[in-house]
Amino acid sequence: MPDGHAQHSPIMEFDMPAQPLAAALRTFSEKAPARMHLVYDSAWLAGKQAPALRGSYNPRDALDRLLQGSGIVVVQAAQGVIELGLADAAQSHAAAHLPADNRSVAVLPQVTVLSAHLPGQTENTGLYTPEAVTVGGKVEQSLREVPRSISTITRTQLDDQGITTLEDALEQLPGVTISPADHFSAATYTARGFTIQKILVDGSIVGGHDGMDSSVNTSLAMYDNVQLLRGPDALFSGQGLPGASINLTRKRPTQGFQAKAALSAGSWSNYLGEMDISSPLNASGSIRGRVVASYNDKEQFWDNAESKRSQFYGVVDVDLAPRSTVTLGASKTRQWGTGGISNPGLPRYTNGDPLPIPRSMGTTLYDHRNTDSESYFASLQHQLENNWKLKLSAVHTESLTDLRISRYQGAVTPGMTTGSTLAMWGGNTENRVNTLDFNLSGDFNWLDRSHSFVVGGDYRKTKNYNDRGPYGTVARIDWATWDPSAPFTLPAWSARQGWNNDITDQKLYGYGKFQLHGPVRLVLGGSYSNYKVDQIHISDVVTGHQRTTGTFTPYTALMVDVAPQWTACFTTARGIQDQSDYYTPAYEPMSEAKSRSYELGLKGELMDGRLNTNITFYDMQRDNVATRLYNDANFDEEGHYCCYVGADAQSSRGVEIDVSGAITPSWQVNAGYTFDDNQSEYGSEDGNRYASFTPRHTLRLWSSYRLSGAASGWRVGGGIKAQSKAFSSGTVRTWNEATQDYTGPAVPYDFFSSGRAVYSLFAQHQIAKDWQLALNVDNLFDKKYFMTTGSTSTGNFYGAPRSFRVTLRGTF
Question: Which domain of life is it from (predicted)?
C-alpha cells in the first residue's frame, strides 16, 4: 500500500487476543471502515496463528502486525486491491493468478475490489456455510457469535441443488414442515410445531406469510442466501412468534465487473433462464450497480397446471464519502399460470387409508393463482469514529393476488368411490407493507474489557385488502370416472363481505454483549413495542381493533468460550402473538398468546471458520392460546370469529444439530437433524401432539465433493431428506344427501403417514474455462409419499416424482 494512502487511513483502536489468523482477519474486517478488500488463498491460513493486537494503528500497520510470523505478506496493492501471497516470490506470483472461486475475501477500509464477496455475501466462496449472518442480531456476526439455533443455505448450495423458490429452500432445512398452498391459503411452514409467519429481508420485516399472500414464495434469483432462526425473536421479528423467523439476504453490487448466466431444462417442460450482471459504474468505483433477471416456464407433475415466474432486480451502491454508503434498489416479480401453485390436497378413505389416486391428479382448467409483487428499498450506512456504525433503511413492498382455486373435500367409505366433492372459491387480496428501521452498533472498552452494543427502532405499517367468496360445490366426484379436464359450466361467484386489516407495529430494541471475565460474556437486551390492529369490513366500518401498548420483551444469554473454537451458550427468549381475530363470549377480542424459550447450546467454528457446528437443546412454552368453546353463527364471518377462551397451553422440547461448511478443502456439507416433541396441555387433548402432522425426527443432508487429479474438473454430490412418521386424528362430517352438504354423521379417524427417505444426486463438470454443465436427479428412487398429513376429508399432498434437470452456467 503506498505510503500516501496509509497516511490518510484512519487510526483505529484494536483489542484482539491471539487467535487463528483466519479469525483475526475476519475480526479485523468487521471493525474496519468499508471498501477495502483483501484477496488471498484461504488454504494458506490453515494452522496459522495471529498475535494479539492491542492499541492504536492505521489499517496497514495493523495488517502487517497480524501477519507477523505467518509467512504471508502483502504482495500487491494496485487499484485498491490488497493481495496477499506467500513470502516466496514464485509462490506469490502464482497466487496472483488464482481463479476467483479459490480466493477468500475480508473487508478492510477505503479500497475497491476485483472479484470478491462482501460481508454477509456467500457467492464466489464455494462454501456451504456463511462467514456472517444478520438474523438474530441486526449486524453481521459469525454463526458462533449468535447464541441461537440457526440454519442457512448459501448461494453455492442453492445453485448446486437448483433451488429456485423459498419453499424449495425451506424443504432442505432440518425441522421445517411444509404444507403446500391449498384453497385460499398460501403454503404453511412449521418449525418446532409452530407456524412460521415472519419473513425478513436484510434484517427488516417486509411482510408476513399470512393467508393469501403467496408473494414470498417467488424466485430466489435476487437473493444470496437463506437464514432460518428457530424460536421466538421478539427483538427484531415483530411480535416474536414461537416457530421461527426467515431472513433473506439480497445480492449486492460487486466491486469489480462480474457477469453470470444460467440456462436449465428439466422434467415436465421446466425451463429456466437467469442473467446476473454487476459492475462499477464510474472510474473510481464509488458507484456500483447490479441487475438480476430470471424467467421460469414449467408444467407441473399434476394435470391441468402450468406456471410462469419472472423477476427483475436492480440495486445501486453509492459511496457519498469514504465512510458513507447509500443503497437504492427495486424488484418486481410476477407469478401466473393455471392449476394453482401446488398440487391439490386429496381426501382419504374414512379409515385413513389413501385413495388409489395417481400423483398426477390435478384440479380443473379454471383454476389459477396470479401474483404481482413489487419492492422498493433504500438504506444509508455511515461509519462513525471508534468502530461505531449507523444504519437507516426503508422498504416499501406491495403484492396483488388474484385467484380461483378448487378444492377436493369429503372422505370416502371403504369399498366405495363416491363421497367427495369439488368446491371452488375466488377472490383477490392486496398487501402493502412500509418499514422503517434504524440502528446504531459498535464496540467499546469498559473496565479493561471489550463489549459491544446494538440499539435501534423500527416502524411497520401493514395494510391487507381482502375480497373473497365461494362458487360453491361445482362437482360431485366418483373417483372411478372423475376427469378434472372435462369442461363444465362455471357457476356464478357469490362474494362474501371482505375485510381489510390495518396493522401498526412500533418498536425500540437494544442488546449488549458484555465481557464479564475472560471467556465469559453476558448478553442483555429487550424490546419495547406498541402494536395496533384495526379490522375494517367492506362497509368501511371498524368492526374490531386491538391495541397492545408498552409491552417489554426481555432477551438474555450467557456465552462461555470453553475452547479456542467452541462456545457454550444458554439463552432465554420471549414472544407474543396477536389473536384479535378471535373473540370471547363477551365479544371482546382475545389478548395475545405468550411464548418463552430456553435454549442450551454448543457452537463450534472449525477449519478457520469454514466449518460451523451447532447443537441446541430447547424447551418452549406457549400460553393463553385461543381455544374455541362454541360457534356463534350470527357473529362469525371471515376474520371475525367467536367464541374463544385463552385456556390452552402448548409445549415443545427437543434438540437441533447442524454441521455446515468444509470438511476438507474439496468436501462441502450441510447436514442437520432435529427431534421435536410437542404437546397440548389442556382438557381432553392434554398430552397429545398439537402438531401431529409434523414428524418427531427429521434429517437433511446435502454434500458435494471436488475430485482430484485428471478428474479435477468434476464435482459430485447428493443428499437425503428423511423424516419419521406423522399422524392425524379427529372426526369428519360425512355427506348429507338431504341437505347436499357435509352435515351427516361425524366419523372418527386416526391414521399414520409413514416415515420416508428421499434421495438426490448431483454432478457438475467444468466443460470450459467459464462454463459448467450440471445434472441433478431428485427423488432418485421415485418414492411415492405424502408431503404432509391432512385429514380424511382433504389436505393430503403428494410429493414430486423423480425428476431430472440439466443446467449450463457461465461466469465472466
Answer: Bacteria
